[in-house]
Design goal:
It contains 14 helices and no strands. The chain is mainly alpha-helical. The protein has one domain: ABC transporter involved in vitamin B12 uptake, BtuC (Orthogonal Bundle).
């Protein structure tokens, strides 16, 4: 029991902080649970899906800061595809393929050529974003068929469907990370690339696969986000990379790779999402949300660094 607590100390600490926040909101602003709480989880579901992909990328000892641009492109693609009258399953499949292709570009440059992931994804972030800006000129995708919004199920059912998809993805990847060989290989490569190679694992293939999965999950997250509104904003992914990295690192994933859990990322998404929603609800000042995310990233990374230093000293 004590070993498990020590192993998941960060996750348990963040979970405790989240529960404390809920208790405080229940005392200070009980109306939050009547007005905002479910909407917070509906908003968090797309972020959770993206954060799961980011967890895999960081566990593999890489980073992807192009996901915001990928998200915007996938959202616009989904809206434009829906406008053509295609069935929703086809819209979803093609959007996921668009995300997979962008992830494959990053994966090929990082795993195939050996370029640093932060440099690659910084470059593709700019390329993707400027390409979309040139193509759309900031124009919203409007006049989308009713069958697209909330998957054609109505708002009440659609909200639960969005949340359910997020939970289903969480369950699948939580199981996959522990019980599927490909999931365990990600952790092995992130812990020690050379050891993984000697064990018969192809690190380049694993890293390439991780970036492709990241792209697919970005596409799915973009769909879950887009169906919530009657129009698609080509800037819907702006700042997404900061939010995802913050949630993942806060949830206990080591920025140095090799360690992290999907449940930890869930708690990180929940904590940051609730903090942001609570601040808007209580103060009506949303601009502090990004500043708090930046501070939390610094604290989490510093904590991870101190922990590694302490272990080396011992």
């Amino acid at each position: 029991m004590s070993v498990a607590i020590g192993r998941y100390k960060r996750e348990l600490s963040v979970a405790a902080a989240y529960l404390t926040l809920l208790v405080v909101l229940g005392v200070v602003a009980p109306r939050f649970f009547q007005v905002e709480f479910r909407d917070t989880w509906v908003s968090a579901a797309p972020m959770l899906v993206v954060a799961i992909g980011m967890t895999l990328v960081i566990v593999a000892r890489h980073i992807d800061i192009s996901i915001g641009s990928q998200f915007s492109i996938c959202a616009v693609a989904a809206g434009l595809l829906a406008k053509t009258g295609l069935a929703m399953p086809v819209v979803i499949a093609v959007t996921l393929l668009v995300g997979a292709l962008m992830g494959a570009i990053n994966g090929w440059l990082v795993a195939g050529i050996g370029l640093p992931s932060i440099v690659v994804t910084l470059a593709t972030m700019v390329i993707f974003r400027q390409s979309l800006s040139w193509a759309r000129q900031g124009e919203l995708v409007a006049n989308i068929p009713d069958g697209f919004q909330w998957f054609g199920r109505g708002q009440a059912m659609g909200q639960w469907l969005v949340i359910s998809v997020g939970i289903a993805v969480l369950v699948v990847f939580t199981i996959g990370a522990s019980w599927v060989a490909a999931g365990r290989e990600v952790y092995t490569v992130g812990s020690d690339r050379e050891t993984a190679r000697l064990a018969g694992i192809n690190p380049a293939a694993v890293v390439f696969g991780v970036f492709v999965v990241m792209g697919v999950l970005v596409g799915l997250g973009a769909i879950l986000q887009s169906v919530r509104f009657p129009q698609v904003d080509p800037k819907s992914g702006d700042g997404l990379e900061l939010q995802a990295i913050a949630a993942v690192v806060v949830g206990g994933t080591a920025i140095s790779g090799g360690r992290g859990t999907m449940l930890g990322s869930l708690v990180g998404v929940a904590l940051l999402g609730t903090i942001g929603a609570a601040m808007v609800f209580l103060t009506r000042q949303a601009q502090w949300d990004k500043a708090i995310q930046g501070i939390i990233i610094l604290v989490a990374v510093a904590s991870d660094g101190f922990s590694r230093r302490r272990k080396r000293a011992v």
